[in-house]
Structure formats: structure tokens, C-alpha cells
Specification:
Elements (H helix, E strand, L loop, with lengths): L5 E6 L2 H10 L3 E2 L10 E5 L4 E7 H8 L13 E6 L2 H13 L3 E8 L4 E7 L5 E7 L8
Parallel strand pairs: 1-4, 5-8
Antiparallel strand pairs: 2-3, 3-4, 6-7, 7-8
Length: 138
């Protein structure tokens, strides 16, 4: 049975993408620390691995056209936040690092507060704080 899941993303400039995610406070897997061909972005307490590959390398794996992130969205990565303030703070870091906010921080119903942003390559991310005490469990 599958033991791990790796998410692979194409990026136009690996070094710029690494700088962008580092500015947001993400860490990287040490296995790829000095690589010019891949960066392993660690996400969450379980250290989910998102591998960033230069577009040519990514396309050699898929043997398919790359999605045009300016015209459509193939996937939305959702990450959690510990508080509303953490959502706001991350959005500020996104703007400072050169990303694009496509959904400003706002309420998404009782107990949910979030925002949406695109990284330097147009991949879309959602950050959401959920106050489970206020969310209905009907």
C-alpha cells in the first residue's frame, strides 16, 4: 500500500520559488538542500512534501502540456492557520514576497476565516482558520 504522497509542481524559476516560499515561513527538506533540479517544500506537522521542479523537468515526467495557470486552475492547495491573525500575517508575507492575493481575508461562514493567494507560478493556495467551537457539526 502507498506509504507517502508527493505533490509535484512545475516552476519557472526554482531559486525564485524557493525564496518565495521561504519568505512565507515554509521550510525545505534537507535531502534537496543543494539541488539545482528540485526543492522539497515541507508543509504541516506531518511534513507533506511538495516537490518544486523546473518546468522542463516536470514536463518530462508528465509527457503532457503544462496547465496555463493564468487561464485556469488545476488544483487548490489548502493549508490551515492557527488563528485569524496568522491568516492575515501570511497574506502580508505573500504580497511582500511577490505573490498575488486573489481572495482577501474574510469570513467564510461561522467560525471560518480565510484568504486565497497565487504563488509566483500562478498555483493557487487557500489558507483557512477554523474555530471548531463555532462550526456546526450537523
Amino acid at each position: 500500500m502507498t506509504k507517502e504522497l508527493w505533490i509535484n509542481l512545475p516552476v519557472k524559476d526554482l531559486e525564485k520559488s524557493k525564496s518565495f516560499f521561504a519568505a512565507l515561513g515554509f521550510s525545505f527538506h534537507p535531502r534537496h538542500e543543494n539541488s539545482k533540479d528540485v526543492a522539497g517544500l515541507l508543509i504541516g506537522e506531518k511534513n507533506l512534501l511538495v516537490l518544486l521542479f523546473p518546468e522542463a523537468a516536470f514536463q518530462s515526467f508528465t509527457q503532457n502540456e503544462l496547465a496555463d495557470t493564468k487561464r485556469g486552475t488545476e488544483v487548490l492547495f489548502s493549508i490551515d492557520a492557527e488563528s485569524r491573525e496568522e491568516v492575515d500575517e501570511l497574506v502580508g508575507k505573500v504580497v511582500d514576497a511577490g505573490g498575488t492575493v486573489f481572495s482577501e481575508p474574510r469570513e467564510h461562514g461561522p467560525g471560518m476565516y480565510g484568504a486565497g493567494f497565487a504563488d509566483l507560478d500562478g498555483h493557487r493556495w487557500n489558507v483557512l482558520y477554523m474555530d471548531r467551537r463555532q462550526i456546526s457539526t450537523e
